[in-house]
Amino acid sequence: MASIVAQCHYIFGLRTGVINNICYFDEQTVIFPCGNNCVRYNIDQRWQRFIPGTEKSQGMQALAISANRRYLAVSERGEKGTITVYDLQHEQSRKRKVLSGGEVPVLEFVSMAFSPDSKYLIGQAGAPDWTLFYWMWEKQKVMASVKTTGSTNPINQVSFNPQDNTQICVSGNGVFKLFRYAEGALKQSNFLKLESQNFMSHTWMSEERVIAGTETGRLLVFESGDLRWEMSVTTKPATQEADRQLERRKPEEAKSEGAAPARMPRVTAITSYSKGFACSAGPGTVCLFEKTEEKDNYRKTREIRIPADPCSNEPSHAEQQEMVTLCISPSEETLVTSTDRGQLYSITLSSAEMSKGEQAHFEFLSHSFHSNIITGLSICIRKPLIATCSLDHSVRIWNFETNVLELHKEFQEEAFSVALHPSGLFILVGFSDKLRLMNLLIDDVRTFKEFTVRGCRECAFSHGGHMFAAVNGNLIHIYSSTTFDNLLNLKGHNGKVRAIVWSTDDSRLVSCGMDGAVYEWNTLNSKRESESVLKSCSYTGVTISPDAKTIFAVGTDCTLKEIQDCQILREVAADDVAYTTIAMSRSGRVLFAGTSIGTVRAIKYPLSTQKDWIEYQAHSGAVTKMVITFDDQYLLTVSEDGCLLIWKIIDKEGRSLKRDKDITYAEEILITKSDLEEKNQIMMELKTRVEELKMENEYQLRLKDMNYNEKIKDLSEKFVQEIESLKTKNQVLKTEKEKQELSHQEVMREVVEKHSREQQDFESTSNQKLMLEYEKYQELQLKSQLMQEGYERQLQAMEDSKGRTLEELTLFYEAKLQEKMLMLGQCQDESRQQVREFEESKKQMEEDGDREIQDIRIKYERKLRVEHEINLRLKGETGVMRKKFSSLQKDIDDRNVEIEKLRVELQKLRGVIKSLEKDILGLKKEIQERDETIQDKEKRIYDLKKKNQELEKFKFVLDYKIKELKKQIEPRENDIKEMKEQIQEMEGELDQVHKRNTQLELNITELRLKLKATDKEMHKEMQRVRDVEALVLRFRTDLHNCVGFIQEPKKLKDSVRELYAHYVQQSDVVDIVGVDADIQREYSRQREHLERNVASLKRKLAKDTEVHRTDNVKIMKENVSLIKEINDLRQELRLVRTQVHDYKSQMGINKKKLSSSDLTALPSVELKGGGLVARLNFEEEAERIIQLQRVEIQRLKMQIQGQVQVHSLRPPSSSTKLPVLTT
C-alpha cells in the first residue's frame, strides 16, 4: 500500500437534493451533507469532522437525527436502498447499524425519522411501492410495514408524534395520513379526502396537533387527524409583490433556471419551536408564527428574507432561492436554513425579534458556496490561495490556510477555466465569449486585458509567471504575461485539448486531447519533443513528473498510463472506473487520481501492475480538477457536485510531509488609485462627521447642563421654602405634643386611681361570691354520692330481671322451631308432587308447539315467495331512480361549485375594495400628518434660529471671560515655574552636600586605620623602653656591686669584664647603634606626617562647617519667605472658602463640580480663589519636600558634630612626645 495517504481536512459546499440536509448536533455544531460525506461543522471555532459515505453508494437521499442528538441516520441509494445509523458521541462517529427493506426490493428511502425515545426508526421507501417501514433499529428488526400511497402520489415527509412512539404522520401529494402501530401492524387512524392538496411539509405542534404546508402557500391545522382551520402563509400584497418580481425576471434567465410561471409561494419547509413555528413562504422568505391567546390560533410575527448578493451580476437572484430545510438550535437561539442552490444561511432569533419594524435578513452560516458544476481550479506560489470557477457564472478565491472565502464575483457569462498567477495578484479566466486577465484587488476582481479566445476550456500560467497557455479548441496559444503578445501557437491535436501542464523549468508543455494524443512541446521553438497516440482512448487528464522525464495520462479506457520517451511503459487498470484527472506530488512519491464516481485514489509510485492504491470517498459527482499545493501539504479536488475538498497529505504515522524549504507567503494586495483615493476621502468625511458629532454632542451637553442647573436652582429654592414651612409646622406640632402629653398625664393619673378603687371593690365582691360557690359545691357533692348509690341498686335489680326473661324466651323459641321442622317436611312432599305434574304438562305443550310451528312455516313460505316477486319489481324501479338521482346530484354539485367560485370571487373583490378604501384613508391621514409635521418643523426651525442667536451672544460672553481667566492664570504659572527651579537648585546643592559627607567619611575611616597602626607601633616602642629600663636597672645593681671592689683593682677588673661579657656583645653594639638611629628617623618622619594630616583635616573641617552654615542660613531665609507666602495663601483660601460656602448655602447645591454656567455667575474673586486652591495643593507638596530636606540637614549637622567631638577628644600629636633614650 502507499506510504503517503490523504486525510479530509476541510470542505466548501453543500449537497443539494438531500431531504433534511441540515440539522443541529449541539448549540455550536451542525451536520450537513457535502460530496459523499456528512460534515460536522463547529460554527464558532470553524472546524470540521467528516463522516464518509459507504462504498459503491450512488448518493445520499435523506438525513435524520435522533431526539437525544446522539444518532444520525443516513439514507443512501445503491443497488438497494440502505439506511446507515452512526453514533455521534463516538469520536470517529462509528457506524452502528445498516438497515434495509429486507426481502422487499427498495431502491431508495426518501424520508426518515427517529422516535422520541430514539429506539425506533421509520423510513419511507420511494417509487414504485412507497412502503413505510417501522424498525427497532438496534436489533435491525422490521416491526411493521405498510404501503402509504399509490404510484402517482409521491410522499414528501414522514414523522413521529413527539410524545408517542406508536403514532406516525405521512404527508405528500394528495396524501395526509396518520398511522398507529398496534398488534404488530401499522393501521391508518384518519380518513380524509385531500386529493387536491400537495403537502410539501408538516410538523407536530403538540400531541394531537399537526400543521402542514402546501404547494399553494396554505397552512392547514389538523387536530386528532381532522382538519380544524387553514390560513394563507402570506398576505395579498406580499403575494402580488412576489408575482411582480417573477414577471420582471428575464426570459433567458427563466430558461437557464427552468423557472416556472408565477405561482403562489410554496411552503417547502416547516419546523416548530416553543413559541410557535417557522415556515418558508416562497422564494427567499421565512415567516415566524407565534401562538395567540385565543383559541390556539397563530399569527405571523416576523418575515425573514435572504438579502441580495452585492457581488452578483443580478443581486436579486439570491432572493429567489427556495428554502429546502429549516432547523432551530436546541436552545432556540438560532434558525438555520438550506436552499435549493446549495447555500446555508442563519439568523439569531432574538435579533430578529428585536428588530421590530425593520426587515430581518439572513446571514451566511459560513461562506457562499458554488451552486453548479465547478469547471476550473488553480493555486499560486506566493499566497495560500485557491481559485475556482463554475457554471454558476462565479469566480471564487479561497484561502486554504485560514479556510475562508477571500473573494467572489459573478459575471454575465459562464466560466470554463481559471488560472492564478504565481504571485497571487492576477487571475486568468476563460469565459464563453473571451479569455480575460484580471486583477485581484482587495475587494474586487477587475478585468484589465481581454483576449479573443472563445470557450477556453483550459488555461495555465507558467511556474515563472512570465507566460501563460490557453486552449482554443484543438489549438494551444502561448502568450507573454508582460507584453500580452501571442508568442507561440501549438498545432497538432485533431480533437479538443482536454488538459495541459507546464514542466518545472517552463521549458516544456504537455497536452492531451480527445483524439487520444499526448504531446510534449518545446515552449521556445514550438516543436514537438515527444508524442504518444492511442486512438482508442480519449484522454481527460495529464501530469508530468518533477524531473520532466515521465508523463502520466488518464482517459476513458479506465487505465493509468506511464509514458516515457514516446513509449507507454506501464498501464494500470482502474477496476472498470474511469479516471478523470491526475496529479503528482512534488516529491514524486505518490500519484493522486480522481474518478468519474467521485472517489479519490492515492497510488504508490513507482507503479506496479497490482492494485496498489488507497481509495477515499470524496464527491458525489465526477472529479473535474485536482491540484497539489507547491509545498506538498494539501491536495485540492473539485467536482460536478459543486464542492471544493481540501485534503491533508500525511504519511502513515499521521505526520505531515517534510518541506524542502519553508514557504513564507506574501501579504501584499492590489488596490487601484481611485479606490484608495475614494477610501481616503470617505475616511476624511467620516472624521469630519465625527468631529461635527462631537461638537454637536458637546453643545447638547452644555444645553442640558444649563437646563439642569436652572431646574436645580428652582428645585433648591422650592425645597428650601418647603423645609422652612416644615420646620414651622414641626415647631407647632411639638408645642401641641407637649400640651397633649400634660393632659394625657393628668387623665392617666385619674384613670389609675379609679382603676385601683374598682379593683379593690371587685376583689371584695369576688371573695364573697367564691365562698357562696364553695358551699354550693359541698352540697352538690353530697347529692351526687346519694344518687350514685340509688343507681347502683337499680342496676342490680335490672340484671336479675334480664336473666329471668332470657330463660323464658329460649324455651319459647325452641318449641316454635319444632313446629317449623314439621311444616318443612310437609312442603318437601308437596314440591315433589308438583315436579311430576310439571313434566307431564311440558311434554303435552311440546307436542302442541311442534304442530303449530309446522303450520306457521307453510304459511310464511307462501308469503316469502310473494314478497320476493315484489322485491324484484322494486329493484328495477330503484335502478332507474338511482340513475336519475345521480344525474341530478351532478347537476347540483356543478351548480354548487359555480356558486362557490362566484362567492370566492365576490369575497376577493370585496376584500380588494376594502383594502383600497383603507389605503385611501391611510394616504389621506398620512397627507394630513405630513402637513402637520411640516408646520411643526417650520416652527421648530424658527425657534432654533432664535435660540442659535441667543447662544452666539452667550458664546461671545464666555469667550471674553475665558480670555480674562487665562490672563489671571499666567502669572501664577510663572510663580510655580520659579518655585520649581528653586527646588531643583536646592536638590542639586543637597546632592553636593551628600557627596562631600561621603568623601569625609571615607577620609575619617582611612585616618582611623592609620591611627590604629601608629598606636600598635607606640605600644611596641613603650614595651621596648620598659625592657631597656629593666636592663639598665640590673646593670646599675651589678655596677653598684662592682663599685664595692674599687679598693681592689684586680677584683674590680674581673667584675668589669664579667659585666662586659654579660651585658655587651660585639655585634649587638653595632646593631643597636644603627637600629636606634633608624627608629628615631622613622619615628620622627611618621610623627611629622600625621601632624600635617591632622592640620589639613582641621582646615577642611573648618571650611566645610562654614559652607554648611552659609547653606543653612540661605535655606532658612528661603523657608521663612515660603512660610510667609503659604500663610498669605491660607488666608486667601479661607476667604475663598467662606465665599463659596455662603454661595452654596444660598443656592442649596450639594458639593459638586461647578458647571460652565455656574462659573460665569461667580465673581472674579471666586475664580481667583479656585486657582489659588490648585496653587495651594502644589505649595503643600513643596512644603512637604522642604520639611524632608530640613530633616536631612539636621541629620548631617549631628553627624558632623559627632566627628568634631571625636577629633577634639583625641590628644594632639605635638604633645605625645616619646621619652629620650639614654644609654
Automatic annotation (TrEMBL):
Subcellular location: Cytoplasm, Cytoskeleton, Cilium axoneme
Compositional bias per record (Basic and acidic residues), positions renumbered to this chain: 241-256
Signal peptide range in chain numbering: none
Entry keyword Coiled coil: yes
Ranges of the WD repeats in the UniProt entry: 367-402, 490-531, 616-649
Family: Belongs to the CFAP57 family.
Protein's name according to its UniProt entry: Cilia- and flagella-associated protein 57
Species of provenance: Hucho hucho (huchen)
Phylogenetic classification of the source organism: Eukaryota, Metazoa, Chordata, Craniata, Vertebrata
